[in-house]
Specification:
The protein is mainly beta and about 90 residues long. The protein is about 5% helix and about 50% strand.
Amino acid sequence: MVSSETANVAYTAEFIDGPLEGQVDSRVLVHGKHDVRVSMLAAVEGIEALFWYDEVDARDVQGRLHVRYRFDAGDSDPYIPTDEPNNLI
């Protein structure tokens, strides 16, 4: 269960495409605001890579801020997508 104090400082981030497609994280609001651009470090097939994501939209879902992010391939490290659904380690 999330306390009301925690709910006021956290939000849900959903990654809608790219190498982190489908991943959902809980992130912290900074000075009451969510990040419009986030970086994520992940391992793809055992190789670490830095991926950048930009905000698509933000909305309230059952009293909690929910922000969707889209992959920015131009600023991210290159990766080769595979057909396997769980290629992140």
